[in-house]
Structures are given as C-alpha cells and as structure tokens.
Automatic annotation (TrEMBL):
Any GO MF annotation of the entry: nitrate transmembrane transporter activity
Annotated compartments: Membrane
Record-linked InterPro entries: MFS, MFS_dom, MFS_trans_sf, NO3_transporter
Domain Major facilitator superfamily (MFS) profile: from-to ranges: 6-412
Keyword tags: Membrane, Nitrate assimilation, Transmembrane, Transmembrane helix
One Pfam family cited in the UniProt record for this chain: MFS_1
Name of the molecule in the record: Nitrate/nitrite transporter
PROSITE patterns assigned to the protein according to its UniProt record, in alphabetical order: MFS
Species per Swiss-Prot/TrEMBL record: Haloferax gibbonsii (strain ATCC 33959 / DSM 4427 / JCM 8863 / NBRC 102184 / NCIMB 2188 / Ma 2.38)
Its membrane topology: Multi-pass membrane protein
GO CC annotation terms, alphabetical: membrane
Amino acid sequence: MTKWRTLLLATIGFNFSFLIWFSFAPFTGPMAEEFGLSLAEIGILASAAIWLAPFGRILTGWLSDKFGAPVVFAIVLGYVGVFSMASAFAESYTVFFIERLIVATAGITFVIGIQHVSEWFEEENLGMAEGIYAGVGNAGAAGGALILPRVFGADWSGPLFQSNWRAAFFYTGIVSILLAVAYYVLGEAAATDERRQATADNATLKQWVHTATRYGTVALALAYVMSFGLELSMNGWLATYYREAFNTNNLVLASTFAATFSIAAGLLRPIGGYVSDVLARREMDILPVFKGRYREQWTFVSLSFIVVSMLAMTLAGLSGAVLIAVAAGFMVGMACAFAEGAIFAQVPAMFPNSSGAVAGVVGGVGTIGGIAYPLVYSSVLLPNLHVGYALVAATMVPIVLLNAWVYRPHIAKRATIDGFLGSSGATGPADD
C-alpha cells in the first residue's frame, strides 16, 4: 500500500539525514588534531550542529503543508549532499565550520517526514506510525557512530583522501544526493487530493500564528526541548564524553559506547507513540491526575522519567565506572524515546490539518536543547564532566511543571484554541 511505501521512504530519508547530521561526532578527535581545536571548541562544534535547526524546521514545516513533503524533502537532501562533499575539501577551519553548519540543516527533514506520514495515516495509528518514522530515523545517529568509524577507519587510504573524516563527508554527500532524487520521484504528498488541498489551504500566516501560540503547542515545544533537544546534545557529545571523562582513547570503542544511547533513543521511540495510541483507544487513565487526558498522562510520565535518568547519569559518571555510565546513558536514551514518541503522537492528533506547521514549531523549538546543553556539558566552570547532566536536569523541572499545568482537563480540552496570546473565540478545536 502507498501509505506503507510513504512511511518507508520517509524513514529511510530521515535515517540518513540523521546519519549525515552527526557524521562529525565520531571524528572529533582527528578533526581537533588537524585544526588544533580545544575541548571547549569541540563543544561549540557540537552545539553549532543545531544552530540553524529551529528556524529551518519552522520554515520547512510550513513549506511541507504548502507545497507537499516530497518536493521539500528532496531539496533539503540535495543541497545537504553538495555541502557535505564540499566540506571534505576544506583547508580553512572557518570554511569547514560554515559548510558543516549548512550540512547540519539535514536535521530539519524531521518535520517534513512528520507531515508526510500524517497525511497518509489515520488518527488512531498516528502515534505508532510517527514513532516508527522518527524512532528508526533517529537511529541514524547510532548508524553513524557504529558504521562510519569502521568503514572510514584511522588507517583509511582512499583514491581521493588520506583523511578518514574527509572521505566520510564526501561519500555520505553523494548518498544524500541520490536519496534526494529517489524521494522526489517516488514520493506522493497525501492520500487524497482533498486532503492535500485542505492542508495547503490551512498553510496561512494567520493560522500559523494561531497554532504557534496555543497552550498545547507551547507546552509540547518546550517538552521537546528536554527530550529531542537532549537527544541531539547527547548524540554530538557522548563520544567525546566517554573518551575524555574515562580516558577511553580508542575512537571506535568510545563511539560504540555513545551509540548505545542513540540506539535506545531511536529504536525505542515507536513504543512511546504506541503506548499513547493504546491509552487513547482504550480510554485508560494511568495517573490519578489529568483524568480523561490519556495521551497527556503518558507524556507527563515520560518527561518525569527524563529528569530522573539525567540525575542517574551524573551519579553513574561520578562512580568512575564507564560501563555503569554507558548503562545510564542507555536509560536516558530510553526516556527520550518514550517522551518523543508521546509528544508526536499528540501533535498530529491535535492539529490534523496543520501537522507540518505545528511539527515545525515543536521540532524547531525543541532543537534549542541541542544548542544549549553541549555548552553546559563542556563548561570549564564545572568541577568535572559528570556534573553537567544534573545541572541540565534541574533546568527541566519548570518545563515538566508547565506541561502539568496545561494537561489539567479544563485547560487541555481547549489547548488548541486558547493560548498565551489570548483565545480565538472559537468553541471547538480550531484545526478540525
């Protein structure tokens, strides 16, 4: 069926986007040596991978609603491939930094695929479908950590490059361009012409402002800061953390440790969406609060799990045992996966005709965590590299409390209507 082909196409495209997005992470050691980078500068490079994502996701979410996902996805994959290939030839760190900044916009494809999948799947299965898409897609970071340093090892000597990281950037760029062509040729924008037209008609500035400022959008966007934003920060940082904090000088081993987090954060994400679907279908309360708000209850539990697991990450690191820290990292990845799946089960269910625009806001704002958190992890003000996780956990508590406030039944039932810039004056969901 076409909807399953759409899910497969979107998942492959996003999986590779994630791989090329964080393709720099396994090679921070040799890149730092060649360009003379300090540990703090590596932290900035990890943070810079997210700089353009907030605006890019907001824009492409709206563009996907307006023009259809296949066109927008193909354009992004195409230019990302070109700049990835170009970065392989950079001799100046300034030029290299700018080119990798553009390559890092591969991460904006997330909201394009979210919109594409939502145009083909019915509401009762959205959480599962979006969870499969995003979960397997996010695992592309693990693929990069596991595959790239093995294919392009320290002893790499190829026809074009003597540096393994340059070869990795060049050849992944070629694959990106090929995927762009495949997505444009094989992709279909929506299940019906009527659904495609309804989505396009809803892609107005007035509607975007309305959806971007509603309680539901704001709460989920901030929740995504502490879930997906956290995931981004860990994907770019953990290989460095395991290498520097535990003197794990083996590049492949440190990357493998880091990949355990990415595997959990990616492959377990469908569980988060599936549980949300099941609770909604069965109308099952799992908390004594937020009665009747089934998806919201699961999201709240998942967000709380993230805070607890981040505190555990600091304690595990302070133990000095790298394998305990790896296990804690896996737990953090699991918590991120559950929360992300829960959040993006809610988004298209709440805003069926503006899923791209809302996914753009939630996904775009969510990436801010990926910008800010690596700067905390690598801060010279901290006594060691383990304390940063607990500090980040403390910043998450107000977000959890805001979501709890929005999830109260009398607010949650109008969360797509009322917001921080006032009420639309409507009496029912504005996006129906």
